[in-house]
Design a protein that fits this description.
This protein has 13 helices and ten strands. It is of the alpha/beta class. The two termini are 36 Å apart.
């Protein structure tokens, strides 16, 4: 969930949540275990509540998986630094998440959440993708949430954390929630949950496919989003809709974002999802996904979940100096695949 406010409202939220210390690099919980690693040039600081039911290494491994997927998508981490606060709350294994001003992510875990629960989680990757897209006027909130919904499963599939069949099963089952209902207008200004999240997801799927078809799959939404980040369009920046469209379309050499916004923004639009799935060569049969590799857009569908960044930037070795009650000396803990994080404890 993206929490986007102008300055005065942001300060009010930070005061109420006790998060102002975090802006200066301090943990709002003096008893928190605080550790840092580097992914794709971005410094990721994680504050773990001492009340968590999980081992610190388990939570850090989960954060590392999310950072890996996001780093692989952008070719680097989208921001220079982020502070992630992990706290306990009863409910689903991962039961809430929010990103704030491109610098802070707050996420909560059920005390009984297992390492397998964390491995299956999508929420933290979703929140990290908010770091790589600018804050827009409230009327276009669906573009923020829809983009994170769309990119999260694709990015996880590209690094082997999710199967292509799972990606398309979730899209087929979820996107109908974003279709316009009787009395609905366009997506601009919507407050409806389904239209915000899944309608926004449909928006970006249509943009992606339009770019791929018009460039013969040489370019995609990836190029547009990366160009926005390179132009400073991260979660801590406020952009207009026009700037998003101009920068994104310039990167692909198309007018796809403008075009899809004209179709979906002001008035209801039926994207004919069943016909779209047929062209992509994907169908659900008795709860299982089957692919038709002879379909007109099958090659595009395959490329959407295939990695284009096989060589990922290695995580740096970072030395930590905050006291951790579960460590008594400097140690190295295994992180996913090539990750290596240097730990040190001092009082």
């Amino acid at each position: 969930m993206k929490i986007a406010f102008r300055l005065a409202r942001r300060l009010t939220i930070f005061l109420a949540a006790g998060l102002l210390p975090a802006i200066s690099g301090q943990s709002p919980d003096p008893g928190a275990i605080e550790e840092t690693f580097v992914s794709g040039g971005g410094r990721v600081t994680v504050s773990l509540s001492p009340s968590l039911g999980q081992k610190p290494a388990e939570v850090l491994a989960w954060v590392g998986l999310a950072a890996k997927a996001v780093t692989a998508y952008y070719g680097r981490y989208p921001v220079s630094a982020v502070h992630i606060f992990v706290a306990p709350r009863a409910g689903d294994p991962v039961n809430s998440g929010s990103e704030h001003v491109g610098r802070i992510i707050i996420i909560r875990l059920d005390p009984e959440a297992t390492p397998e629960d964390l491995k299956r989680d999508w929420t933290l990757t979703h929140e990290m993708f908010h770091l790589g897209f600018p804050s827009l006027d409230r009327s276009y909130h669906y573009l923020e949430e829809g983009l994170s919904d769309y990119l999260e499963p694709l990015a996880r599939a590209r690094v082997g954390q999710l199967s292509a069949r799972k990606v398309w099963k979730d899209f087929i089952e979820g996107m109908p929630n974003g279709l316009p209902q009787a009395g609905d207008a366009g997506l601009d200004g919507t407050r409806d949950w389904g239209r915000t999240y899944w309608g926004g997801c449909i928006f970006w799927l249509l943009v992606d496919l339009d770019v791929r078809q018009r460039t013969k799959n040489a370019r995609s939404l990836d190029d547009a989003i990366r160009a926005m980040v390179n132009a400073g369009g991260t979660g801590g920046s406020d952009w207009s809709l026009e700037r998003v469209m101009d920068v994104g379309d310039a990167a692909t050499g198309t007018d796809s974002i403008h075009k899809i916004h004209l179709l979906l923004g002001a008035k209801p639009f039926d994207p004919h999802l069943e016909e779209l799935w047929r062209k992509l060569g994907v169908r659900e049969e008795r709860g299982r996904i089957a692919f038709d590799e002879t379909a007109p857009l099958a090659a595009m569908r395959r490329s959407m979940t295939q990695s284009k960044n096989p060589a990922l930037p290695l995580a740096s070795t970072v030395r930590f100096w905050r006291w951790s009650p579960w460590a008594t000396a400097a140690t190295t803990l295994p992180m996913p695949e090539t990750w290596s994080v240097r730990w040190a404890a001092s009082r």
